[in-house]
Amino acid sequence: MFAQPRIRKVAAPPPKKRKATHAVEEITFDKDARAEYLTGFRKRKQARIKHAKEIAEEKAREERIVMRKQIREERKQAVEEHVETINKILRQAESAGTEEQNQDGSGDEWQGLADADVQEAPPIDMEEEYIDEDKYTTVTVEAVNVDRDGLHKPEPHHSSDNE
Length: 163
Fold this sequence. Notes:
This protein is an alpha+beta fold. It has a domain at 31-104. It has helices spanning 31-39, 41-104; strands at residues 125-132, 135-142, 145-147, 150-152.
């Protein structure tokens, strides 16, 4: 009915309750290390302060970077909103312009001013002299034509009577 117990194997003897202590060979007193420890309080304190300042500067730098990024994002968003409003206004103006064209009944685009509508001003050529104590100044005013190539003197118009 009961199982037979296992046979116990003999192992190494049980460990001792106390371990053998190793004797320290010699303790030396280092006067230089003691002096460094006692006089190094100020150095260590200054090192801690310096380390704390470096950490604070790094945090401030990171904060400035984050703030610049946030400002950049806000400006970008403001520009996008501005562009959207301008586009909306342009679309409204365009739709209003097409409605006006439909009411007029003319679908033609504006071709600019006709040559007959443009009146040419008579050429201005004058010369004035100013005298002020030691200075003598001459002012010459001439008419010019402006085009893509630059400024040009107008060609004199000859009347058909002279030709």
